[in-house]
Structure formats: structure tokens, C-alpha cells
Design goal:
The complex is a heterodimer of chains A (176) and B (158).
Chain A lengths: L15 H8 L1 H8 L3 H27 L9 H29 L1 H5 L2 H22 L5 H6 L5 H27 L3
Chain B lengths: L3 H9 L1 H8 L3 H28 L8 H29 L1 H5 L2 H26 L8 H24 L3
Helix pairs in contact in B: 2-4, 3-4, 3-7, 6-7
The chains are: A mainly alpha (176), B mainly alpha (158).
């Protein structure tokens, strides 16, 4: 059964499942806890060092700007496990933050843009691995990094900067 | 406290007023602060993990540290600059904020440690094998920077 609920933006209704989630004791606990919510926020912010820090270093390597003494293939191989673990923590903590007030967050246009950008960044990563990265052994020995690898790095940097900006926008512009 | 007049001057400065009067400047500077945090944390982390013998194990410690060092310095500069702007916009509030004071104290310790002990243990260690000393340095470094980050987060909560 869908419960009608007035929405923070453009008078839309939230899916019933979000109303259900908001009413669970789990969601109420997150919302009303003195410590739990701030702790999850802290995990979400500090995991940026692992997730985004490694991602930026990887992208800077593909642009030939950082870790130049280390082959690109090794940088990708060494950093990607950390990036994966970091992403898991970012996503899990983000999902918990969302669960604390699902109807409110659902109404945030910035959260939608943020999720869209994360999706695009994922597609960008998949394309990088499926195409230009396959030939890394060859271009790692050459002087120049292929344009497609550089393009993937620039797209990644721009999207993740946008994701961080949207994250701040969600916090500032969501009606309390 | 001899610092108070300076803090009041920051608070009342034209820059402080401009930052307070703009609805988007503060969040925008926070975005820079967060991006720099990611880069600073990332560079410190790869070197500290290497000291512990995790990650770039094929590379000598100094090799990796020399590559990471300029980015660490750049991130640190961006962090301090954006942090100063954030401070100026609410200087008096920060002056009375215990988490901010703890953060500045820890930051001072972290900086001294980083540019003396840490620098020497990373940039000047050409070996590959982990040492007890290196592992201790990595632990202290991670603990100090995590402490700075936690205090930073706590500023908004206290």
C-alpha cells in the first residue's frame, strides 16, 4: 500500500518502500542516535582518503603526473584493491546515511546527480579496462601514454570532483 | 591569551564578512578541503602501507616516497589554504571550539613528525624489506593524521 507523502521537491511522492524504510525501527534508530549517525558520517568522509585518494593517484599516473617511476600496470594493480575496499565502505556508509532519512534524501536532486555521476564513473572505469588497458604492457614501455587512457583519467577526475561537490550540496541544500 | 586579538581581527576582516555573507562560498571551499584531504590521505596512506610492506612491495620505499612526496606537499598546501579560509569565516567560533584546538595541536605534532622522522624513514630508505622502525613510523603517522581528521570532523559536532 502506497502512503501519500508530500515531498520536499516538486510535490512528487516517494515510493512506498521508502516510507516503509523510514518507519522501521532501524531507520528511526539511525535518525535519533546521538553517536551512530555522526560516526557513519565520519567513516564516509575519512574513507575518502582511501577511495578517492587512491583513485586520484591512479588518474594522475595515467596522465603521467604522479608515480612515474612505477609502471602504470603496477599502479593499477596495487591501487585497485584499495579503491574497491574504499568504495565498499563509501557505499555502505552512504546507504546507511540514506536509510536514516530515506524520504528526505530521495527528494534531493543533488543525490540523484551524485548517483548518476558515480554510475558514469563506473562505466568509464569499465570502458578503460575493456579497451585501452588491455594493451598496457605495450604502452607502459613506450614514452607516451595513449590518449584514451588520459581521457579516461580526466573523465574520472572530473566526475569524482563532481561527486564530492554534490555530496556537500546534499548536506547544505536539503531542507532539514 | 595573546591570540584573541588576532582571532577577532580575522573574524571582523573583510574576507571573513565576505565568506559569511555568501551562501555558497563556504561549501565550495569545503569541497576543496575534502578533495585535498583525499589526496593528502591517499599519498600518506600508500607510503605508510609500503613501510608496513603492503601494496607497492616491488618498489624500494624511497622510490615510492619520492614519487608521492610532491603530491603530499601540494595536497597539504591546498588543505592549509582552504582550512585558513574556513577558519577566517568563523574565527571566533573556532577559537572557542575544543575540537578545533585539539586539531591544531595534533596537526602541529603531525607536521613536525612528518617533516622529521617520517621524511627520513621514507625518502632516505632505499631498501625493500620492512623494518620495525619503519612499521612504527607508519603506525604513528597514520595515528596522527587520523587524529587530525577525527578532530576536524568533531568541529561540527561539539
Amino acid at each position: 500500500m502506497e502512503v501519500e507523502r508530500q515531498f520536499p521537491v516538486n510535490g512528487m511522492t516517494a515510493p512506498g518502500v521508502l516510507d516503509w524504510l523510514a518507519g522501521t525501527s532501524f531507520s528511526m534508530y539511525l535518525r535519533e542516535s546521538l553517536w551512530t549517525y555522526p560516526i557513519i558520517e565520519t567513516v564516509h568522509v575519512l574513507t575518502l582518503c582511501l577511495f578517492l585518494g587512491f583513485t586520484l593517484l591512479l588518474d594522475f599516473r595515467l596522465l603521467g603526473m604522479a608515480l612515474r617511476r612505477v609502471p602504470a600496470a603496477e599502479v593499477v594493480r596495487r591501487l585497485e584493491p584499495g579503491i574497491a575496499v574504499g568504495f565498499a565502505f563509501m557505499f555502505a556508509s552512504g546507504a546507511l546515511l540514506f536509510s536514516g532519512d530515506p524520504v528526505k534524501f530521495y527528494g534531493s536532486v543533488f543525490l540523484r546527480i551524485k548517483l548518476g555521476m558515480i554510475l558514469l564513473a563506473g562505466v568509464n572505469l569499465l570502458i578503460f579496462h575493456a579497451t585501452v588497458y588491455r594493451g598496457v604492457q605495450q604502452w607502459d614501455r613506450a614514452a607516451a601514454i595513449p590518449a584514451r587512457a588520459r581521457a579516461a583519467a580526466i573523465v574520472s577526475i572530473l566526475l569524482w570532483c563532481g561527486v564530492v561537490a554534490m555530496g556537500r550540496a546534499i548536506a547544505y541544500l536539503l531542507p532539514a | 591569551m595573546p591570540l584573541l586579538p588576532f582571532v577577532q581581527w580575522c573574524d571582523q576582516s573583510a574576507l571573513g564578512h565576505a565568506l559569511r555573507n555568501s551562501p555558497w562560498l563556504f561549501p565550495a571551499i569545503e569541497v576543496v578541503h575534502l578533495l585535498a584531504l583525499a589526496l593528502l590521505g591517499g599519498t600518506v596512506l600508500i607510503v605508510d602501507l609500503r613501510l608496513w610492506d603492503i601494496g607497492f612491495r616491488g618498489q624500494p620505499v624511497a622510490h615510492l616516497a619520492r614519487d608521492a612526496y610532491p603530491w603530499m606537499l601540494a595536497a597539504l598546501a591546498a588543505m592549509v589554504l582552504s582550512g585558513m579560509l574556513l577558519f577566517v569565516s568563523e574565527a571566533l567560533k573556532m577559537y572557542r571550539n575544543d575540537a578545533f584546538r585539539a586539531k591544531m595541536a595534533l596537526l602541529a605534532v603531525a607536521l613536525v613528525f612528518t617533516f622529521t622522522v617520517w621524511r627520513k624513514a621514507t625518502l632516505r630508505y632505499d631498501g625493500r624489506a620492512p623494518t620495525l622502525r619503519g612499521r612504527l613510523v607508519a603506525l604513528v603517522s597514520l595515528a596522527l593524521w587520523t587524529g587530525v581528521g577525527l578532530c576536524g570532523r568533531a568541529i561540527g559536532f561539539v
